[in-house]
């Protein structure tokens, strides 16, 4: 059955505007043109002049004014043609030529009687002040207000479901979209690459609805809700689409913001209507995307008063999910990347029984995601998908889809008919670093300073054990940066103190190189300082990796700490934290200076090579420094456009 929402008539606002114009036009015709006809008001002396000159054919008057109609002979004179320029409305309504204001009606009528007896005027008549035109004109606002109100209500209720979208009060109807597997495009679990753990739990929910007796026969209860939690772009909504494609039950989909409206009580009304529809079609699934729009914890930063519309909506949702008269054949799926701010009552068992964490994909899952997106791209044969997966650590599923699209655009921009490995490398560089700006004006002194800075990063990372392996270094401006160094970090589940310190040392290598070579520092290390400050603060205040404070953390994973408006430590501890952070950063900065001082000649050689080639790779560092002595990191071959081999 098709969703009734899609069959609603579309209301065109121009129909309303056309109706208003028609009403005004009809009134103008009824009133004889009025001020719309462009008629000129004249004085009594001028009127008597026209009357004595046998130019007036007809006069219609009331207590305050008179409408003057000239004869055909007078109308053709230059004087009257100049005064009364014809308009479309005046020609259609055949209104008066002039309007005269009357001071004394009796004297005016006597003058007309005398002129009629003398044959100067053919006819005249006395009408009442209030005619039908003036009555309609006075009633126009009363007529238009309900017309505009009905039109607005129809527009606001046009997206509601449940057959009431064309009525005024359909604004309280649910805006959920009922998924129709026969007419809508289907996404199945085969289209969801990676996410094996999350997929397994989601598939079990589908099985609950397809074969409930399998679980209820031994006393089990079907879960009432499952919350998909994870970073943006990891595939939470895609999993819900797969459920809609796989489950052979009605699937209602909507966003958390669909409950929000400017009118009081609308959100709660839409929740009630949503669950009413779902229960009528049970077993069914309801999917609420971005549920944090209505599920935020109550009582936190609430300055809008006790009658808060969002809280009313949340209260109704809590009641529908687990309250009196609820139906267990309706399962609620929801997705958010801010689970820490959700209300505790929403997260308890009996409402969202399961929390399914959708994490960033690992290298094997990234390979599967690449294989899904590469099906739609014309690529070269034998493209190394393993290589692409290893080149994109920390990328989400949405990022990988973007890489594939950017690679196709890059190949098309170069006039290629197939996408090759270099196009994917360029796409990764484009996404991570930004667009190349080769035409940016940089002086030779600035270029050499940038080369020294980037060479410092490359040198320190090469000489430290736990720093990420270098891929390439460039001084071609990209995005907001003037140069960049690309690394291939290991995918670690835990990070040790020495690993974080080596990374901080490599990050400070750029500023340390400027100090060693120029004995001066510049503003070019802003992003480096920001990064190491975050790392050092996390080591001290979150992970407890410090000597002064010990095993203490001030991190609140729930996001609902009682210390919302104050620091969870004393001023003395704050000073100790600042001192510890400064000590960590300065220690690694000095360590980088010492390493670069010992290898100053090689640093300058690397910077000169970077100025010459603008882009250097790992093999160039091996020629200068020799083989890297640390670790047994996996070697990856990269063939670039100029034939260079990158590890």
From TrEMBL:
<keyword id="KW-0482">Metalloprotease</keyword>
<dbReference type="InterPro" id="IPR027417">
    <property type="entry name" value="P-loop_NTPase"/>
</dbReference>
<keyword id="KW-0132">Cell division</keyword>
<comment type="function">
    <text>Acts as a processive, ATP-dependent zinc metallopeptidase for both cytoplasmic and membrane proteins. Plays a role in the quality control of integral membrane proteins.</text>
</comment>
<feature type="domain" description="AAA+ ATPase">
    <location>
        <begin position="222"/>
        <end position="362"/>
    </location>
</feature>
<dbReference type="InterPro" id="IPR000642">
    <property type="entry name" value="Peptidase_M41"/>
</dbReference>
<dbReference type="GO" id="GO:0030163">
    <property type="term" value="P:protein catabolic process"/>
</dbReference>
<keyword id="KW-0472">Membrane</keyword>
<comment type="subunit">
    <text>Homohexamer.</text>
</comment>
<dbReference type="GO" id="GO:0008270">
    <property type="term" value="F:zinc ion binding"/>
</dbReference>
<dbReference type="GO" id="GO:0051301">
    <property type="term" value="P:cell division"/>
</dbReference>
<dbReference type="GO" id="GO:0005886">
    <property type="term" value="C:plasma membrane"/>
</dbReference>
<dbReference type="InterPro" id="IPR005936">
    <property type="entry name" value="FtsH"/>
</dbReference>
<keyword id="KW-0812">Transmembrane</keyword>
<dbReference type="InterPro" id="IPR003960">
    <property type="entry name" value="ATPase_AAA_CS"/>
</dbReference>
<keyword id="KW-0547">Nucleotide-binding</keyword>
<protein>
    <recommendedName>
        <fullName>ATP-dependent zinc metalloprotease FtsH</fullName>
        <ecNumber>3.4.24.-</ecNumber>
    </recommendedName>
</protein>
<feature type="transmembrane region" description="Helical">
    <location>
        <begin position="12"/>
        <end position="30"/>
    </location>
</feature>
<dbReference type="InterPro" id="IPR050928">
    <property type="entry name" value="ATP-dep_Zn_Metalloprotease"/>
</dbReference>
<keyword id="KW-0479">Metal-binding</keyword>
<keyword id="KW-0067">ATP-binding</keyword>
<dbReference type="Pfam" id="PF06480">
    <property type="entry name" value="FtsH_ext"/>
</dbReference>
<feature type="binding site">
    <location>
        <begin position="230"/>
        <end position="237"/>
    </location>
    <ligand>
        <name>ATP</name>
    </ligand>
</feature>
<keyword id="KW-0645">Protease</keyword>
<keyword id="KW-0131">Cell cycle</keyword>
<dbReference type="GO" id="GO:0004222">
    <property type="term" value="F:metalloendopeptidase activity"/>
</dbReference>
<keyword id="KW-1133">Transmembrane helix</keyword>
<dbReference type="GO" id="GO:0016887">
    <property type="term" value="F:ATP hydrolysis activity"/>
</dbReference>
<dbReference type="Pfam" id="PF01434">
    <property type="entry name" value="Peptidase_M41"/>
</dbReference>
<feature type="binding site">
    <location>
        <position position="528"/>
    </location>
    <ligand>
        <name>Zn(2+)</name>
    </ligand>
</feature>
<dbReference type="Pfam" id="PF17862">
    <property type="entry name" value="AAA_lid_3"/>
</dbReference>
<feature type="active site">
    <location>
        <position position="454"/>
    </location>
</feature>
<feature type="transmembrane region" description="Helical">
    <location>
        <begin position="132"/>
        <end position="152"/>
    </location>
</feature>
<feature type="binding site">
    <location>
        <position position="453"/>
    </location>
    <ligand>
        <name>Zn(2+)</name>
    </ligand>
</feature>
<dbReference type="GO" id="GO:0004176">
    <property type="term" value="F:ATP-dependent peptidase activity"/>
</dbReference>
<feature type="binding site">
    <location>
        <position position="457"/>
    </location>
    <ligand>
        <name>Zn(2+)</name>
    </ligand>
</feature>
<dbReference type="InterPro" id="IPR037219">
    <property type="entry name" value="Peptidase_M41-like"/>
</dbReference>
<dbReference type="Pfam" id="PF00004">
    <property type="entry name" value="AAA"/>
</dbReference>
<dbReference type="InterPro" id="IPR003593">
    <property type="entry name" value="AAA+_ATPase"/>
</dbReference>
<comment type="similarity">
    <text>Belongs to the AAA ATPase family.</text>
</comment>
<dbReference type="InterPro" id="IPR011546">
    <property type="entry name" value="Pept_M41_FtsH_extracell"/>
</dbReference>
<comment type="similarity">
    <text>In the central section; belongs to the AAA ATPase family.</text>
</comment>
